[in-house]
Every structure is written in structure tokens, then in C-alpha cells.
Design goal:
Length: 184
């Protein structure tokens, strides 16, 4: 069900992503979303002006869709989704730090920046964190192929330790401005 009012073009994208994933899997979703992010005028027009960074647009048992406009110059904590996911960047750039599992903890592997137009698909085992190295919020859609709100999944602290069930309040409380994080 939709959690907020969105325009028809946004609904069309969500519904097309769901049907592509059900019929043909992630490869088809990536191909479709590449078309979307390369022609973003309609979705930008039909996306409301939200007053926060992360807005849950739609959720059911098969998909969770977020609009995410990542605040610049903040490192957010690493986490897994425990389901396949895809990010579609249609404004600005989204930077991902990817991690390898090391027992119950994780170790940083690499950092990759994806400038619009970009589509980033993540398998269900992926551990990442996101940040925005730019100077204004980016514009992205994130899709998770399941109900992310109720999923059993892990987040870690900024050192990749202390794994625990993902919790949005802990996620926001661990977010660290880049100027205060000498490791980044
Ligand atoms: Fe994520």
C-alpha cells in the first residue's frame, strides 16, 4: 500500500519495478530503472516536495520503496538488507561504502560513487553504507524486494562492530558528520 501521496509517474515506476522483478528478476529491473534515471523529468515532477531525507513511499510483502535524498557530508552506519535491493540515482550522486563480513563484524572493502544517472543493484548478502559527498541532497529511489520494515537484518556501528538488529533510531543516532570522523 502507498504510505504517502505521490504522482502518477512515481506510481507507474513502482508498479513497473514490481512487475519486472516478479516476471524477469533483477536484470530486467536494472534495465528498466536505467531508462527512468536517464529521463528523470517526469518522476521529478511527480515526486512531492518532502521535508525529510527518507520517505517510505510504498510497502507490501514483495517490495518496499523509499525516496531518499541523502543529506550531504554525513556518514551513515553500515547495514544489510537481507533481501535483494536496487538504488536508482536520478539527481546528484550517491556514494556507497561496501564491507566484507569478518566473523560477526565487518571490514571496509571499497568506496564507490555513483553519479546520476546510475542504478546500483545489491544482492541479499550485501553490506553497505551510504553517504553524499556533494553539497546538496541527492535524488534517489531505493527498492527492497520484501517488507524491509519487518525484516530480520543486521546493522553495525561506525567501526563495523556491535552487530544488532537494524533499528532506525540507532541508525540515525550513529550517523556521523564527516568533519568529525577522522577515518573518513
Ligand atoms: Fe542500504
Amino acid at each position: 500500500m502507498y504510505k504517502v501521496e505521490v504522482g502518477d509517474e512515481v506510481k507507474k515506476v513502482i508498479e513497473n519495478v514490481v512487475s519486472h522483478y516478479a516476471e524477469d528478476g533483477m536484470a530486467e529491473v536494472v534495465e528498466y530503472l536505467n531508462e527512468v534515471v536517464n529521463n528523470p523529468d517526469a518522476i521529478r515532477r511527480d515526486m512531492p516536495n518532502f521535508d525529510c531525507d527518507e520517505v517510505l513511499l510504498y510497502v507490501d510483502d514483495n517490495v518496499t520503496a523509499y525516496y531518499i535524498a541523502t543529506t550531504p557530508q554525513i556518514n551513515y552506519p553500515p547495514h544489510e538488507h537481507a533481501m535483494e535491493a536496487v538504488a536508482a540515482v536520478y539527481g546528484g550522486a550517491e556514494t556507497h561504502d561496501f564491507f566484507d563480513r569478518d566473523g560477526v563484524n565487518i571490514k571496509h572493502r571499497c568506496q564507490v560513487s555513483f553519479a546520476a544517472p546510475s542504478v546500483i543493484d545489491m544482492n541479499s548478502d550485501c553490506v553497505h553504507s551510504i553517504c553524499n559527498l556533494g553539497d546538496k541532497p541527492n535524488e534517489t529511489l531505493h527498492f527492497y524486494f520484501g517488507d524491509l520494515e519487518t525484516q530480520t537484518r543486521t546493522m553495525w556501528d561506525m567501526q563495523g562492530q556491535n552487530p544488532a538488529q537494524y533499528d532506525q533510531d540507532r541508525y540515525m543516532s550513529l550517523a556521523t558528520p564527516m568533519t568529525k570522523n577522522l577515518n573518513n
